[in-house]
């Protein structure tokens, strides 16, 4: 399960969350495990059911104004009950000043108490989107991800089969490189896979005989992109004379990543085959399929219709000969 510590949340750059620590700095190691958030309004009244300690807890104007109206004894008891659940952190919105009882209890229980200047609605929207990207399942795949005609093509295959060379040829044809060698794959709601390059290898490509090259520097920013939805996977395989390959395109296969299936094409590689052209055509064909047009099925339907017509004509001939 993906996790994000409160310290990592604070250290994230360019998030626009504007977070500062007010108390409970000893608990910055605590982890956030869910992209969903809660507003513990009822908990401040003593109702602790259905609270989830692994979620961020947001305290807005309503919660803090209610807390201030309680007697000091009741407020202390309710806040202590809340903090005893061991939340990952509490976040105050609109730059409000928390009551002393909240500062003292979060410090005592080592629960980070953070504050943002943003309004509750805007902050909840921003933090939810951020946590969705960071906490949804992710993995790494050995391969190359290329944007071909707007289609995210994941090239796979054994080392040395020619994945990077194909990707380089596609870049020369005007397509865009997303990642080479290691593709970081993340899910995105509802059921979409996105791929991006690793921080170390971004924009770099290994070409045997040349070494490491920087695609961004060689071809410009138009030749690369940060991330791309994975629409189809293509596995490059060495040609095997004894193997049976799909020649009609009716044998639909899938490649499963993080519980999500994407169409899979197995492409045999041998001297004389222009693999880059085949990948371009495969990407175009995937676009047609997503628009509801399947060339292979259309051909099969036409073939079956023609066979039925021929069979019907043949039966009429036989019946006519018998009548004579």
TrEMBL record:
ATP binds at residues 157-164. One of its GO terms (molecular function) is protein serine/threonine kinase activity. One of its GO terms (biological process) is regulation of carbohydrate metabolic process. Its EC number is 2.7.11.-, 2.7.4.-. Residues 205-214 are annotated as: Important for the catalytic mechanism of both phosphorylation and dephosphorylation. It comes from the Bacteria. Keywords: ATP-binding, Kinase, Magnesium, Metal-binding, Multifunctional enzyme, Nucleotide-binding, Serine/threonine-protein kinase, Transferase. Its cofactor is Mg(2+). The keyword Nucleotide-binding applies. Residues 268-273 are annotated as: Important for the catalytic mechanism of dephosphorylation. The keyword Chaperone does not apply. Both phosphorylation and phosphorolysis are carried out by the same active site and suggest a common mechanism for both reactions. Belongs to the HPrK/P family. Catalyzes the ATP- as well as the pyrophosphate-dependent phosphorylation of a specific serine residue in HPr, a phosphocarrier protein of the phosphoenolpyruvate-dependent sugar phosphotransferase system (PTS). HprK/P also catalyzes the pyrophosphate-producing, inorganic phosphate-dependent dephosphorylation (phosphorolysis) of seryl-phosphorylated HPr (P-Ser-HPr). Homohexamer. This is HPr kinase/phosphorylase. It comes from Desulfuromonas acetoxidans (strain DSM 684 / 11070). The lineage of its organism: Bacteria, Pseudomonadati, Thermodesulfobacteriota, Desulfuromonadia, Desulfuromonadales. The gene is hprK.
């Amino acid at each position: 399960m993906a996790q994000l510590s409160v310290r990592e949340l604070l250290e994230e750059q360019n998030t626009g969350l504007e977070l500062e620590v007010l108390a409970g700095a000893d608990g910055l190691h605590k982890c956030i495990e869910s992209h969903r958030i809660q507003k513990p309004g009822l908990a401040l009244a003593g109702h602790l059911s259905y609270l989830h300690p692994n979620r961020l807890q947001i305290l807005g104007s309503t919660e803090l104004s209610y807390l201030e109206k309680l007697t000091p004894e009741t407020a202390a008891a309710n806040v202590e009950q809340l903090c005893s659940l061991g939340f990952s952190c509490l976040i105050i919105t609109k730059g409000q000043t928390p009551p002393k009882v909240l500062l003292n209890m979060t410090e005592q229980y080592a629960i980070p108490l953070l504050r943002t200047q943003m309004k509750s609605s805007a902050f909840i929207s921003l933090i939810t989107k951020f946590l969705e990207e960071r906490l949804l399942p992710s993995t790494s795949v050995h391969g190359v991800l290329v944007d071909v005609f707007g289609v995210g093509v994941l090239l796979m295959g054994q080392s040395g089969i020619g994945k990077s060379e194909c990707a380089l040829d596609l870049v020369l044809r005007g397509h865009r490189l997303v990642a080479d060698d290691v593709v970081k794959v993340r899910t995105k709601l509802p059921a979409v896979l996105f791929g991006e390059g690793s921080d170390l290898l971004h924009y770099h490509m290994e070409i045997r005989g040349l070494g490491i090259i920087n695609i961004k520097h060689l071809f410009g920013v138009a030749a690369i992109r940060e991330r791309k939805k994975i629409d189809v996977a293509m596995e490059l395989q060495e040609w095997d004379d004894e193997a049976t390959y799909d020649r009609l395109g009716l044998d639909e296969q899938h490649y499963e990543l993080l519980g999500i299936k994407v169409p899979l094409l197995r492409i045999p590689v041998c001297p004389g085959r222009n693999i880059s052209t085949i990948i371009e055509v495969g990407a175009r064909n995937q676009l047609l399929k997503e628009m509801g047009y399947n060339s292979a099925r259309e051909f099969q339907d036409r073939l079956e219709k023609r066979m039925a017509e021929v069979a019907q004509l043949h039966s009429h001939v036989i019946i006519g000969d018998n009548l004579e």
